[in-house]
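HUMAN: Mind sharing a backbone?

ASSISTANT:
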Amino acid sequence: MDVYFVPIGRDRFESYFEAADDEPEPAEPRGLFARWRAKLTAIIRDVERERHEAHLADGAGLMARARRWVVRWIAERIAEQRLLWNLGGADEATLHVPDNLDGAVAERMMRDAMKRDADRHLRLLFVHAVGLLLSVPFVIIPGPNVFGYFFTFTVLGHYMAWRGARRALSRIKWTVVSNPDLSELRGAFALEGAARHQRICDVAERLHLHRLAHFVERMASPTA
């Protein structure tokens, strides 16, 4: 599994992972975690299908707007948490870091971030589990089950993210590899406007990471 320690500013970094669009799922999941993962995958597919349905985009009523918000929110959380979810099933991983950043320093920074993520997702897991219990009476409401997806998604998502972060800290064997393209990406934050955007896109293309440019520009602070 390849993880990229991506610059999102001159001295700020985020771990990044990009899964293949056609990543296969187990046909017959076995065990509690495998069943939960299969359930989460089904929710993701349903939500992404909802995003492409014309009636969802065209609805102007309160319920339609609320559904749009839920779907977009879940889609954003999917993008944010895929790294941690995938770490939950990994035994080895390669951490690609800028070649102008010391590898040991980069790994320590990554581990510190994983510890913060593990603590945060564990807290949120308990909060959303309470929300899931309180939402049970509303699942009988007719219509698409988008609102029922919300707390089911957040509970499963926070559990899998917590599990992945903990595994990254204690079970996964990390190999640190220097990458000059990531150093070039780090240098993009000395540029302005269109020049910065073009540099980010060029690096993403060379790394064959199709969503990287959007991720970097969304995560980067305006003053980076």
